[in-house]
Design brief:
Layout (H helix, E strand, L loop, with lengths): L1 H15 L7 H6 L1 H20 L2 E4 L1 H11 L1 H24 L2 E10 L5 E5 L3 H11 L17 E5 L4 E14 L1 H8 L1 H59 L5 H36 L6 E4 L5 H5 L15 H22 L4 E14 L11 E11 L7 H67 L5 H35 L4
Parallel strand pairs: 1-6
Antiparallel strand pairs: 2-5, 3-4, 5-7, 7-8
Length: 494
């Protein structure tokens, strides 16, 4: 590490102008440059510590995107969420056991008013004994004895117990249990559809960047050709065999090519950024594409693609088919809501009553227990359940319609992709031959110009035609790659 720091320090010194023999005044003037250089080097060191370099083939890029793309990761999380939802549904079929401990303080015990049942018995004894009142007459039974106000209860109550509830039969719960595996497969298919879309987009951008690499190489070759031609024309001009206008025209052509290359490099840089974001790669990381691109790769495996096609090969069709199956479960669930449900409930507890809070001391606790078997019979629900069944049937019909519409879309995608691929390959072959022909024309025109039998206008036109042919070839190459990816995706082979 010390050696690396020394090397960097020396590099900073060279940047700032601190070389042997440099004057003190010059060193003073470069203090600001040193500060900037230090800042740059520290940032560079930090970047080297945190950034990574990835050299990926297309398959490696697809694997990286599968593991790091946000949409794919969220789709996989949806599977885990569904698993927990399934556990929740399963839990409804298990016994539900609850315990409780409670205590109650009654500052004012509730007073209850009850008929006076004591006085009638007392009067009856007096009447039977013939007891007389103060006037000497026998005591008579009053017609109304009134009420007695009494408090029932104690200041403190306490209780502890346990309860159990078990579903013996509930059609909706059983349907939910049956649908668990289908729900998991539904979310898995959703993840596969998401992953397939990411694969298609990553592949398109990856190949687009490879095509851009070919485009940059062609631009560099053209710049080198024009630079050599400009040098030769300049020599001819110096010897009186060409005009200054010829040199200026080549300068204009070179400037146009340099501008085009700058724009192409900017597009490539932005393309790399877009690919990193799509793959879920940090933008600060470096990405190197290691695959090569040629015409044969575009045709490989395309002869068998689309043969013996079945809709079930498409992941989005499998996803739609799962949706129909879930709709059928939904209808069945509401239909079973019309049949009775059977529940088993049980509870056991101990209660104690005291006028003082002394439950932890000796004292009697009273047992309470009950076992209940309850049959719930839905007699009339205001036609609400019928409405739920009808709504579920309509939703199921929508799912079936969407699946049938998807078939039509798949047929259209396959035929369109097949036509596009056939046209793209033919166009690619034509443009490749045209580019080779344009290059030959340019070389022949260049030779004529060098021996003095051709004009500068001819060679400029030949170069322009060659550049146009190369641009058309690049465009045809990219279109063929996109057509291949679209066809493979349409036939479920991507």
């Amino acid at each position: 590490m010390k050696g690396a720091y020394t090397a960097i320090t020396e590099r900073k010194d060279r940047i700032c102008g601190f070389l042997p023999g440099t004057s003190r005044l010059k060193q003073t003037h470069t203090i600001l440059g040193l500060i900037l250089a230090l800042t740059f080097c520290n940032s560079w060191l930090y970047a080297q510590d945190t950034a990574s370099v990835h050299a990926f083939t297309l398959q490696q890029a697809l694997d990286y995107a599968k593991a790091n793309n946000v949409q794919v990761k969220n789709a996989l999380i949806d599977i885990q969420i569904q698993r927990q939802t399934n556990r929740e549904v399963t839990g409804m079929a298990y016994p539900q056991i609850n315990g409780f401990v409670s205590t109650t303080y009654n500052p004012a015990v509730a007073t209850q008013v009850i008929p006076n049942f004591i006085s009638p018995a007392t009067y009856q004894v007096l009447v039977n004994e013939g007891v007389k009142n103060g006037n000497g007459n026998p005591i008579q039974m009053p017609g109304d004895f009134g009420f007695i106000a009494a408090q029932f209860g104690t200041k403190f109550n306490a209780g502890a117990g346990v309860s159990l509830s078990q579903i013996i039969f509930d059609g909706q719960v059983f349907v939910g249990l049956q649908a668990r595996e289908t729900l998991i497969r539904f979310q898995e298919k959703n993840a596969e559809v998401t992953e397939e879309n990411i694969r298609a987009n990553v592949s398109k951008i990856y190949y687009q960047l490879l095509v851009s690499k070919t485009q940059i190489e062609l631009l560099d070759a053209n710049i080198a050709l024009l630079d050599k031609l400009k040098h030769d024309t300049k020599v001819m001009f110096d010897n009186g065999f060409a005009e200054k206008l010829d040199v200026d025209k080549l300068d204009v052509q070179l400037a146009n090519l340099q501008t085009e290359k700058t724009g192409a490099l900017n597009q490539v840089a932005n393309g790399y950024l877009g690919l990193k974001v799509l793959m879920g790669m940090p933008v600060k990381d470096s990405l190197i594409l290691t695959d090569n691109l040629n015409d044969d790769q575009i045709r490989t495996g395309m002869l068998d693609a689309g043969l013996d096609f079945d809709y079930a090969q498409r992941k989005d069709y499998q996803y739609a088919d799962m949706g129909v199956l879930l709709g059928e479960y939904d209808v069945r669930r509401y239909r079973l809501a019309k049949i009775p449900t059977l529940l088993l409930n049980g509870n056991y507890s101990k209660n104690a009553m005291r006028n003082r809070f002394d439950f932890l001391k000796k004292g009697e606790w009273f047992d309470i227990s009950a076992i209940t078997l309850q049959l719930n019979i839905p007699l009339f629900t205001g036609f609400a359940n019928n409405a739920r069944i009808a709504k579920a049937n309509l939703s199921l019909q929508q799912s079936v319609n969407q699946r049938e519409a998807l078939k039509l879309n798949i047929d259209n995608e396959i035929q369109t992709a097949r036509n596009n691929f056939s046209t793209a390959v033919s166009t690619l072959d034509y443009q490749k031959k045209n580019m080779q022909l344009a290059e030959n024309v340019f070389q022949q025109t260049k030779k004529k110009f060098e021996i003095g039998t051709g004009s500068n206008t001819e060679i400029i036109q030949a170069q322009t035609d060659m550049k146009t042919a190369q641009t058309n070839y690049i465009s045809a190459l990219y279109n063929a790659i996109i057509a291949r990816i679209d066809f493979m995706k349409a036939t479920g082979k991507l």
